[in-house]
Amino acid sequence: MRRSSRLRASIAAYGVLLLFAAIMLFPFVFMAATALKTPEDTFRYPPRILPRTQDSVTIEGEEQDLYAIELPSGDTASMYIAESGVTAGLFVEPDDPEQSVAWPLELATDTGATVDVAGTVLPVYDVTIGDNVRELALERETAVARFVDPGDEDQVAYAVARTAERAERVEFQWQNFTDIVELRDIDRALTNTILVTVLVVGGTLFTSIMGGFAFSRVRFPGRDKIFVAYIGSIMIPFIVLIVPLFRLMVELGWVDTLGSLVWPFLFNAYGTFLMRQFFSTIPGELEEAAFIDGASRWTILWRLYVPLSWPAIATLATFMFLYAWNSFIWPLVSINLGNSDDFVLTLALQTLNGQAGEGPNLLFAAIVISVMIPFTVFILAQRYFVENAASSGIK
């Protein structure tokens, strides 16, 4: 009994977790699906997840759209319009006015009788629909289209073309990614973003490892006060630093270059703090043993501390990767919008609003390109977030 209760509790817990996981993942699934749709399909209401396109067939060298038309037998077939503007009547069932059918008048015969339908006197016709003849009341005249089954030319049906339901098939528009690259040089922006991100992450890791080791293991006058002052810079909002940082870039001549996106971010107080705290958890006996064996501080850092600190290094690298990849405010300030050669992805996406505003599918394709790389990096590096660095030290 107790075992079954635990099983039900586990099933309920996993069910709740899966529900919230589905809710969290739905926007990403919808984004990826929209990136593979046609422009018309993106505006469809109600929206659908899978991308669909109009099904078509080639008739006598011309491509004809197919429609899902209900046959007199009640089945549905994919048919094309063979003739438009056929004079027809909108016929209704005398006993059930909600049941109506649009059918050519040439296939209907006036019986001369009338019937009262919802307070209106309507003429009664014998209407030949398929192999059956039905007595229907003519509500009004209209125009229909003659639909033909491309696989069976003798299979004919009539319906109002304007309201006919399109025959569609699930088809992924992979060319959207090619189109968006050609539209705004996304490949150049992607290359710039990768370059800037690699340089920022690599530079930050190097300076943070060096600074963290110095503040945690090297004793020098004023070390703790300098560390506190350095960490205090984290409390200064970046928006406050934009103006003086921009003035500095102007004086150095780095404005409107990729260098302005790299050099200001090679030194990071948060990274130094993270590495310092991590290095402090490594047992000092390891360092003392290395000193006894004749190792220098440089050797101890790169041969001992760094291999034991991969979880912290991977965490810092992931944080800095996401920061550098998604940075928008500073590139917008330092890079001229007319200098598309130095665009990063965030700026390229900003300018796409004007050039691809009528094609949300292209915008979503560009977003998918910009999201997939950091998403993949995060998935591959997330295991380091839960590792215990000290566990790889002394046993």
Could you name the key traits of this structure?
11 strands; 3 domains; two-stranded antiparallel ribbon; nine-stranded antiparallel beta sheet; alpha+beta; MetI-like fold; 395 residues; single chain
Structure description:
- This protein is of the alpha+beta class.
- It has 3 domains: 50 residues, no CATH class; 118 residues, no CATH class; 216 residues, MetI-like fold (Orthogonal Bundle), CATH 1.10.3720.10.
- It is 49% helix and 24% strand.
- The protein contains 13 helices and 11 strands.
- Strands 2, 3, 4, 5, 6, 7, 8, 9 and 10 form a 9-stranded antiparallel beta sheet that branches.
- Helix 4 packs antiparallel against helix 10.
- The radius of gyration is 35 Å and the shape is elongated.
- The two termini are 42 Å apart.
Give the SSE order as H and E letters.
HHEEEEEEEEEEEHHHHHHHHHHH
Tally of helical runs? 13
Helix content: 40-55%
What kind of sheet is the major sheet? 9 strands, antiparallel
Content-based structural category: alpha+beta
Oligomer: single chain
Radius of gyration: 35 Å
The share of residues in extended strands comes to 15-25%
Shape: elongated
Topology of helices and strands:
Elements: H1 2-34, H2 39-42, E1 52-54, E2 56-59, E3 62-70, E4 76-93, E5 96-104, E6 108-117, E7 120-129, E8 132-149, E9 152-159, E10 165-166, E11 168-170, H3 175-184, H4 186-217, H5 223-232, H6 238-252, H7 269-281, H8 284-292, H9 297-308, H10 310-326, H11 329-334, H12 345-355, H13 360-381
Antiparallel strand pairs: 1-11, 2-3, 3-4, 3-10, 4-5, 4-8, 6-7, 7-8, 8-9
